[in-house]
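Why should sequence recovery work at all? Because a backbone constrains its sequence more than one might expect. Tight turns favour small or flexible residues, buried strands favour hydrophobic ones, and helices have their own preferences. The token representation captures these environments compactly. In the example below, the structure is given first.
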């Protein structure tokens, strides 16, 4: 049997250097989890002490151990297990008196202990000289001086700890709290014995805990059916027990500190000088907003520069690579590839794209925390946040939510009260995260022109306003109560250590990837399944005695073999009367109208019609589903589905035109062609409905070849009047994905994206870039139309200026084309030539055109009108307010539970629908029914929250 690990528990007040010591001892050998039954973070690590392997547990930072708040309960419960062989109580040497309150409570537990007097260097700089021997004598335990950010001091601390661990463990001396308190303890000890047995603790300690706070372990008192005569205890102490116990502990701390501090020549420190500026009555708020803006900018802008790296690399490995392995190597069925590669693989890819933004967000927060400014930021924001029933520190998670909702929600852990923590989590999603920004910016650039920046800013502001209103509603319905007293120590400023910052950021990032990633991946896999699978109509006929799948194309019919189109055998003609249509459930329907997701989208589109999503705009409904994966997926989904819908319409029009063309064509006076089953020529006309090529009108046997007209000689280079006259490029056959090439491509995106970073300092919303892209794309489209109308160049020449290739000799070829156009009377301006180079038709102009065709700003009668596009604005408001992405919801469920998580998502989506309906129907003078209905829904939602809150609060669901 392996020997038990020697375990050290580190305990101390917040901001006393506890985490710095933990990181210095354990480095990256840490694991992060939750304490049993609570969401308080639990950190463990290991380090070597001589030849002994030491386990270190970092207890939550608390000012006291009353077991009321989750962090206090977690710390006390752990210490009661006696797993810890030794407690290292780290105290702030520059503020020793305040720290000794917790020390006295740890001494009461009678566990072997060492006191680490941290920040001893800061105390000396402040003119404080301490006699640590007096402190050691008073408590009967070793006291070691320490500076947790100094490597030499850490080395000395480890050396001292080696002697402590190797020698006899010293249990602290019991504290005498005075005659009255000790008499009360004697009175309580026999009464609390059943509770002590339940806790496996000493009856004296239970008595002291009760005197300090009668709510301590109230559940255990109830379980043991122990009732204390509170009046009798108060009579013995001449005052409330809590006041008597607090007075006894503070008196002890004051006495010991007075003897330990030998001299106190207080000096004005750098922290004092910085606070005179950073906490100045007039300067504190502007500085605070500037700091928060820079945090937002670093996390969103610099973090986003690395998103493409993760997106390309993880997509190549887990989507393309895994798909190739399953399909081409293992020859797995299509549905297996759809689930594993397109589902779970895409889920992993989605999680990976959050890594850079979250890492930089955590890096910024760690810097602010370690530097000491975070406490000041909470202090500055406290007055405003108290209006919402929240303490000042709740502002930080909300500010983080502007970058990404996931770390913002996780940041709510800094709040001690469960009610405040849950309320903050409910409000964070209203802050427009970075994933919504591409959607805002693209819609704004497409519809609002020079007002794009104003509209995007209005959306951000709308999120804040809705959060305020919703917060006030929740405060009076679900999370009833006042903000807790905001008491926070302002620690001295430090220059954070790089190693500590990286460890802290890495651990938080790892926690997100492992925990939230599980939920996200599963949810993405489910949506990926819905997006990939669907019922598809397939055509079958009999060829050479076998049932064969066939497809129609512009060239006629083709067979399907191994999921690839192949020509029909020579001499085989399709008899359409024998073609059968069968509906099959297949994979590979991603972003098409055949997918289950599209079917669901079409079915629920009527729900969104009241705020302007018309029945033919079902792709917008589907995009709201894929927006659950990541909000920026809204644009990609809509554009893909719009394009497919457009192609279907174009194919239908082409088919009608082909039928007309065949019907009008003269029939040669030759011997009738031999067709399958002696079909008449009329049936041939039907067979060519999808083709404008004459030789597919009638399929002839070999004997009829002489009747075919001779082909006209083709010109070597045909001058074009339209791009459709140019032959389509043949797609390359798929093969094994180039993982190394993908890695190089991914790596190349980093410097390219970083080169644009500093230009975004003044345009953090990115609307100017979207406007420039839109203008360049639209000018390019107009310029290309002018060139086509000139009928002066060939397809090859047209391609050279459409793609604006950077290949060798491309510049010279373009100059020749421009000269040729000029000779034909078409001279291009510098702006037009610049647009040909910069404009991106594939990803920009098509998106704008599709958006404008489906969001045409209809009035109540469905007719397009000029002016502000309330249809678009209402749609964007819905995107702002409806259920957060699955990444955020995964963290929400983890933090507040599945039941409240579902409630939050449903209520938020219902509110989003109601607000969006009002924003659309009222300005356009719409349907009174929908206006009244949405108001009724809002009122009903508030009533539901009120009733649910009354029930939940009565049961104490949101109490600590």
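From this structural description, the recovered sequence reads:
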């Amino acid at each position: 049997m392996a020997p038990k690990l020697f375990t050290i528990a580190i305990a101390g007040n917040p901001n006393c250097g506890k985490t710095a010591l933990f990181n210095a001892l354990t480095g990256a050998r840490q694991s992060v989890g939750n304490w049993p039954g609570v969401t308080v973070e639990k950190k463990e690590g290991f380090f070597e002490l001589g030849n002994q392997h030491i386990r270190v547990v970092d207890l939550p930072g608390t000012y006291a151990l009353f077991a009321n708040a989750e962090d206090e309960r977690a710390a006390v419960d752990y210490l009661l297990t006696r797993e810890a062989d030794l407690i290292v109580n780290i105290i702030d040497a520059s503020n020793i008196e305040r720290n000794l309150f917790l020390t006295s409570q740890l001494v009461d537990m009678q566990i072997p202990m060492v006191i680490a007097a941290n920040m001893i260097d800061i105390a000396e700089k402040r003119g404080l000289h301490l006699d640590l021997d007096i402190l050691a004598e008073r408590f009967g335990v070793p006291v070691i001086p320490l500076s947790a950010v100094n490597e030499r001091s850490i080395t000395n601390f480890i050396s001292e700890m080696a002697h402590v661990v190797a020698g006899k463990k010293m249990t602290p001396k019991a504290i005498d709290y005075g005659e009255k308190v000790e008499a009360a303890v004697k009175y309580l000890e026999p009464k609390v014995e059943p509770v002590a047995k339940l806790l496996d603790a000493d009856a004296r300690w239970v008595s002291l805990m009760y005197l300090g706070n009668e709510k301590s372990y109230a559940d255990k008192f109830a379980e043991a059916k122990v009732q204390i005569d509170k009046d009798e205890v108060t009579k013995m102490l001449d005052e409330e027990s809590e006041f008597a116990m607090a007075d006894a502990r503070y008196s002890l701390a004051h006495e010991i500190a007075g003897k330990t501090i030998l001299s106190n020549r207080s000096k004005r420190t750098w922290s004092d000088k910085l606070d005179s500026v950073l906490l100045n009555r007039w300067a504190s708020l502007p500085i605070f907003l500037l700091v928060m803006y820079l945090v937002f900018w670093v996390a969103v802008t610099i973090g986003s520069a690395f998103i493409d790296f993760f997106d390309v690399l993880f997509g190549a490995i887990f989507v393309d690579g895994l798909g190739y392995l399953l399909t081409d190597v293992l020859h797995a069925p299509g549905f297996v590839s759809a689930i594993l590669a397109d589902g779970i693989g895409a889920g992993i890819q989605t999680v990976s794209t959050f890594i850079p933004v979250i890492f930089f967000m955590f890096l910024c927060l760690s810097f602010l925390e370690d530097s000491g400014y975070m406490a000041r930021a909470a202090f500055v924001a406290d007055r405003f946040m108290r209006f919402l029933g929240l303490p000042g520190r709740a502002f930080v998670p909300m500010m983080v939510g502007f970058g990404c909702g996931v770390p913002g929600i996780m940041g709510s852990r800094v709040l001690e009260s469960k009610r405040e923590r849950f309320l903050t989590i409910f409000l964070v999603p209203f802050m427009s995260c970075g994933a919504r920004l591409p959607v805002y910016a693209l819609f704004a650039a497409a519809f609002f022109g020079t007002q794009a920046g104003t509209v995007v800013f209005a959306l951000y502001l709308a999120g804040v306003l809705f959060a305020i209103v919703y917060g006030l509603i929740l405060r009076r319905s679900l999370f009833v109560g006042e903000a807790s007293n905001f008491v926070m120590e302002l620690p001295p400023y430090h220059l954070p250590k790089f190693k500590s910052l990286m460890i802290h950021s890495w651990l938080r990032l790892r926690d997100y990837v492992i925990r939230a990633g599980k939920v996200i991946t599963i949810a993405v896999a489910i949506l990926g399944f819905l997006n990939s699978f669907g019922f598809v109509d397939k055509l079958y006929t009999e060829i050479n005695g076998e049932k064969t799948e066939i497809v129609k194309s512009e060239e006629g019919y083709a067979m399907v073999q191994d999921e690839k189109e192949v020509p029909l055998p020579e001499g085989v003609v399709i008899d359409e009367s024998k073609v059968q249509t069968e509906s099959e459930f297949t994979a590979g329907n991603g972003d098409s109208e055949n997918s289950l997701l599209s079917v669901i989208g079409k079915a629920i589109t009527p729900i969104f019609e009241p705020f302007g999503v018309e029945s033919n705009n079902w792709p917008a409904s589907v995009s709201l589903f894929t927006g659950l994966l990541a909000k920026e997926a809204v644009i990609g989904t809509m554009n893909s589905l719009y394009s497919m819908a457009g192609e279907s319409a174009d194919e239908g029009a082409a088919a009608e035109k082909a039928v007309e063309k065949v019907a009008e064509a003269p029939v040669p006076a030759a011997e009738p062609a031999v067709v399958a089953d002696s079909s008449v020529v009329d049936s041939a006309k039907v067979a060519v409905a999808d083709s404008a090529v004459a030789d597919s009108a009638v399929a002839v046997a070999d004997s009829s070849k002489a009747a075919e007209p001779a082909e006209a000689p083709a010109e070597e280079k045909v001058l074009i009047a339209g791009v459709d006259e140019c032959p389509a490029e043949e797609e390359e056959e798929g093969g094994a994905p180039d993982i190394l090439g993908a890695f190089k491509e991914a790596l190349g995106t980093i410097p390219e994206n970083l080169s644009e970073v500093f230009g975004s300092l003044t345009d953090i919303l990115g609307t100017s870039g979207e406007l420039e892209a839109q203008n360049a794309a639209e000018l390019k489209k107009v310029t290309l139309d002018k060139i086509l109308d000139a009928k002066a160049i060939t397809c090859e020449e047209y391609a050279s200026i459409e793609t604006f290739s950077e290949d060798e000799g491309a510049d010279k070829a373009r100059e020749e084309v421009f000269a040729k156009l000029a000779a034909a009377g078409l001279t291009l301006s510098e702006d037009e030539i610049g647009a040909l180079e910069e404009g991106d038709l594939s990803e920009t102009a098509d998106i704008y055109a599709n958006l404008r065709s489906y969001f045409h700003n209809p009035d109540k009668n469905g007719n397009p009108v000029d002016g502000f596009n309330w249809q678009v604005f209402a749609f964007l408001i819905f995107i702002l307010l409806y259920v957060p992405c699955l990444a955020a919801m995964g963290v929400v469920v983890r933090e507040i539970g599945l039941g409240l998580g579902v409630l939050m998502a449903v209520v938020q989506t219902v509110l989003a629908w109601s607000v969006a309906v009002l924003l659309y129907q009222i300005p356009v003078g719409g349907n009174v029914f929908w206006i009244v209905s949405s108001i009724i829904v809002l009122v009903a939602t508030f009533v539901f929250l009120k009733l649910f809150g009354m029930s939940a609060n009565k049961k104490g669901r949101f109490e600590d």
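A few observations help interpret the result. The chain has 37 helices and 14 strands.
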